[in-house]
Here is the input.
Amino acid sequence: MSRPSFDVIAIGNAIVDVMAPAADEAIERLGMARGGMTLIDTDRARLLYDAMGPAREISGGSAANTLAGLAALGAQCAFIGQVADDQLGEVFAHDIRAAGIAFATPARAGDPPTARCLIFVTPDGQRTMNTYLGASQFLPAAALDRAMIADAAVLYLEGYLWDPEEPRAAMRQAIATAREAGRKVAFTLSDSFVIARHGDDFRALIAAGAIDILFANEQELAALTGREDFHAGIAALKDRVPVLVVTRSEKGAVAVAGGRQVEVAAEPVAQVVDTTGAGDLFAAGFLFGHVRGRDPAECLKLGAICAAEVIAHYGARPEADLRALIAGRP
Here is the structure.
């Protein structure tokens, strides 16, 4: 088997976060759920975008955030995700390429527009989020670069994108391509609501041996296994995937590989500012260690360091020098 050109290739939602300050009265006038996250349709997205003041645009999306962390650590990465042929699509493509991540998925013409999360920040720092998934839900199998998938050590899949039919079919084909090339497949469950809708699919993939590395948090582990007790959930899955990684917020994280279970404590953080992206960056650190041949305990430590960096500031992309943070540390 040839040495891969890429460490990790990911398939996920291509989303741009649009952040703007807003007065408290604007939140009420626009009928938003203050401090919450609401999925919105095209008309609502356009209305809210038009109502925003001067905004800061930052590319996001769970798997793309993970790649941003991996690239910051020095990994060679590629991304597959659908944007529209519009201004925010250009923003997303520019940002991901500027991070050193290969991105060649053709933009989609016409509606719906590029996915965006419209974030209104009130004077107290509270963020009210309105997510429009737009074009990201229409990634066709024809957009897959199979040669690129076969040329990556790990294919990383975002569970959120399993929900729409078209990208689900594309991801199934991507798994087959990676398997044929002898590459590994990593999967993040993303959210309990995804498991509620597609848990049978995920359990079937696990039973078929299609997933090599599975990422979950405590709630997702319980949803997938039907076991409320954390240790019972681990026991139910540990022999069914080669590498199981479960994050537990302030309680740290657990990995089971080759029958051996290891744990790591959460890294200390002076102040938790924003937990958005914590799981994404944990996956980045873990995968970086994995593709570099580190043992699971070291991979967990790298994940914890990266997660601690991202929760210490607003936004789901790293701001500090991750390579400097992990230098000299396992």
